[in-house]
Amino acid sequence: MKDLRTSFLDHIKKGLKGKPLPLRVLFWDGHEYTFDEQPLVTMHLRSAKVLSRLLMGSALDVIGEGYVEGTIGLDGRYQDILAVAEGLGDVFPAKKPKGGIFRKHHAAHSKSQDAEAVQYHYDVSNDFYKLWLDHNMVYSCGYFKTGTEDIDTAQEQKLDHVCRKLHLQPGEKLLDIGCGWGGLLTWAATHYGIQGVGVTLSEQQFAYAKEHIKREGLANRVEIRLQDYRDIPERDYFDKVSSIGMFEHVGRAKLGEYFQVINRVLREGGWVMNHGITAGQQDDEDGHHSGSDFMDKYVFPDGEIPHLWRLVWEMAGQDLEVLDVENLRPHYAQTLIHWVQRLEARKAEAVAMVGDKRYRIWAIYMAGCAYAFWRNWSALHQVLAIKQTKEALTLRPWERRYQYQEDSFHRADPDWGDL
């Protein structure tokens, strides 16, 4: 009868079917095995229990959890580690391989449950996020014109891209749902002259954003609230609504209610920009995916990602007519690469702030998400819509030219650098 190590190695060899795997495995007892003459990744398996779990399947989840908990050590560049992990994920698959980064689990998404999930992820430490975010503290996909911009430039371009898409005008009232640390509202008030309201469930974001708005001299023009989007009292009040990187926390079953709230607060003819992660394939909404257990346990409790079709369908059901759709998938891959490189560069400070385990969670999650966007397992869509409840046409630009300051288009592949 084969021992556990032999079964593990034989299973990998058989599953690879001759494909290369640049991996060197170091076992807990000093034995080692190399699958390639020039391995790019070394994996330290520190107990036989890890082998048992890998043989049961869902390698991406097991490797992610093992790395975080210290039962698996990983040496190599993150992009090589993730490529090897994908190869092992094919050999030891979950019920559905290579799916999106979130799974559908039909969480209740009560107000208290959502607040707890948001605070788990965002209330780590404002100083921790300052280490690796841009100077505007924008924790969402940047916008690249050439792919070579630094993260500060890319995020300013994203803020301006959103403002121009929304066709913001001086004096308009803008609601930002899930306002984060207040970067968009500050930008829109300073550069576009709007009056703004931002809501967040994160206590640390709320405190930071309020102080930031005050420091920028915008307290008489921008209000920050610690408030669930369902508790926003206004009706037919806002000219424009933005929701940037927030609707991933809403839940599929709550999308109708979410867009109903947006319809309620928008004036007739008002515009909404929904910017968020979407499933890469139509059937990625359902079932269990490789890596989703790790994301649900360590990163985004109760996160649920719909496909683009569901987003558009739910918007239409609330009289929100879609005007424009843009997929920023490569932009998010590049953004995440910037973030994880910056986090790695400040590793000692990050570990001192949040501990080694939390550091490993954020590093592997951001690198893994970059890989997922790069491989088209997940997408990022900006969907622009207008509240259209009357039969008459509501005034809007005839073309998209207003969204851009120049007509040239550049495309660069994600630059992993030395990650």
Automatic annotation (TrEMBL):
Pfam families on file: CMAS, DUF7884
GO annotation, biological process: lipid biosynthetic process; methylation
UniProt keywords, alphabetically: Lipid metabolism, Methyltransferase, S-adenosyl-L-methionine, Transferase
Ranges of residues in domain DUF7884: 21-85
Transmembrane stretches, start-end: none
Catalytic residues identified in the record: 369
InterPro entries cross-referenced by the UniProt entry: CFA/CMAS (IPR050723), CMAS (IPR003333), DUF7884 (IPR057206), SAM-dependent_MTases_sf (IPR029063)
GO molecular function: methyltransferase activity
E.C. designation(s): 2.1.1.-
Enzyme class: transferase
Family: Belongs to the CFA/CMAS family.
PANTHER family: CYCLOPROPANE-FATTY-ACYL-PHOSPHOLIPID SYNTHASE
Protein's name in the database: Fatty acid methyltransferase
